[in-house]
Amino acid sequence: MSTEDQSQQPEPVVQPEQAADAPKPEKAPKPEKAPKAEKGVKPEKGEKGPKGEKGGKGEKPAKGEKPAKGEKGSKKAEVPEKAEADIHPRLLVKFEQEILPALAQQFQRTNRLSLPRLKKIVINMGVGAAISEKKYLEEAVDALKLIAGQKPVVTKSRKSIAGFKLREGMSVGCKVTLRGKRMYEFLDRLISLALPRVRDFRGLNPDAFDGHGNYSIGLTEQMVFPELNPDKYTRPQGMNITICISGSNDDESRELLRKMGMPLRTA
What we know:
- The protein has a domain at 88-260: 2-Layer Sandwich (50s Ribosomal Protein L5, Chain: A).
- It starts with a helix and ends in a 7-residue tail after the last helix.
- By secondary structure, the protein is of the alpha+beta class.
- The chain is built from 5 helices and 5 strands.
- The protein has a 5-stranded antiparallel β-sheet.
- The longest helix has 18 residues, at 90-107.
- Helices cover 24% and strands 13% of the residues.
């Protein structure tokens, strides 16, 4: 490299050395951090936290109170005070507490199972007009359902009779069989409500037994039951009621019905 080229190159700039005693520039102060919330402290229920923070959930309604509009209530419904299984008909309670001990003393028996007791009650409606008009049968089924509190069964003819224009298998009536609590409830309504509403009622026949302790009653009008609306059921319709009593003869069944309140005529 020639001396001329070296002379043409720029000389390096030499910075003056800083004095040893010169003070150093101060650093900028760091921004203060927001204070952290104490660990374990949560906002109170029902109060919303500040913006950007999650607040607590709304308070639940007290037990038994209905929630306000827009709030969700508890899923479990209130438990009724008494279940239906704990409710006993008054005639059943009377039968177990009063009638059975009285019959045991009258017949001089220590075994309660040998005493007469109700087995079932069968209610039957024969609707002969249903051969020409089916709506009469539908009305009878609805009426029997209200009277008994149970859906009835439609009965059909077993053979053909040309004189009545009846063919085998035609629907000509309905029936229902009651047992248990419904049986005692129906018998209680029959004795205390329906029979006193019969026109010119003078008592039931005390000899209407079949020889095996079963008793039968015939009603010519279904409107003696107050459950039926007279404006809806205008057509007169009768029924047969059979009370089946187990473990007894006619005399024992008659005593049982008298103690239950059945208005039997005296001889």
